[in-house]
């Protein structure tokens, strides 16, 4: 198996996996979405809320506010179910406080964290609007969790793959130049001088087959390479996409080891 990184940003990575199969690639996708630990606000104690927003709606907005959850920041924290405390403690949680008075909009930057390394990823997420003399005061507790339990613990906003596109031309018939203009992504270009249709960006092909349907003589065929994939991971900023990928692979490796150990025990 080979992996080639095509592009890499702070919150997005696109790479190609070669010589793999669908079950394996899909296992990576599921692990990245569901089994990578991330911090999110779980418990909210609202002391005072004079705003027009219901307490439950405010708590929901707080829960969906992305928090910094990279491996360095959450080092030492354990998942709540693995902690020996009765409810929450410094080993399994991070506390936030919020106390504001209107008029004005309360933003995510107004949340005060007990850990300076863990805070909202973005400062400008609006939480609630307060009118004159309206006040809000609350305490919130963030815990590590997994996307399989709730969407707020899902580190990825996009985690998807597609099989590598493959476009071929039938050289036994005359080129149908009109089909190139039907591509909605503009990856085909007619070159009448060379009597061919050029493929400008094969990886941008969505395999919609608009060009195939527009072709009257079966000049163009669109398919895919069975064992090659284009994979994209985009996060909400809580952790780098590379960390999500590496952690997902660690999870799969650990599960594989568990299966091997179980199989060995069953054979004894």
Which class do the helix and strand fractions yield?
A: alpha+beta
CATH topology of the largest domain: RNA Polymerase Alpha Subunit, Chain A, domain 2
CATH superfamily assignment of the largest domain?
A: DNA-directed RNA polymerase, insert domain
Provide the β-strand percentage band: 35-45%
Major pleated sheet = 4 strands, antiparallel
Name of the CATH architecture of the largest domain: Beta Complex
* Number of DSSP strand runs: 12
Arithmetic mean of pLDDT: 93
Stretches where pLDDT is under 50 for at least 5 consecutive residues are none
Global outline: elongated
Q: Helical percent range?
A: 10-25%
CATH class of the largest domain: Mainly Beta
SS element count, helices: 4
Radius of gyration: 25 Å
Q: What order do the SSEs take from the amino end to the carboxyl end, as H and E?
A: EEHEHEEEEEEEEHEH
Spatially, the strands of the biggest sheet line up as 1-2-12-9
Oligomer: single chain
Number of domains: 2
Ends apart, CA distance between termini: 33 Å
Structure description:
Strands 1-2-12-9 form a four-stranded antiparallel sheet. The chain folds into two domains: 2-34 and 157-232, RNA polymerase, RBP11-like subunit (Gyrase A, domain 2); 38-153, DNA-directed RNA polymerase, insert domain (RNA Polymerase Alpha Subunit, Chain A, domain 2), CATH 2.170.120.12. The protein has 268 residues and is an alpha+beta fold. It starts with a strand and ends with a helix. The chain is built from four helices and twelve strands, in the order ββαβαββββββββαβα. A hairpin with a 3-residue loop joins β1 (2-8) and β2. It is elongated and about 75 Å long. The model has no long low-confidence stretch (mean pLDDT 93). The longest helix is centred in the C-terminal third of the chain and has 27 residues, at 241-267. Helices cover 20% and strands 35% of the residues.
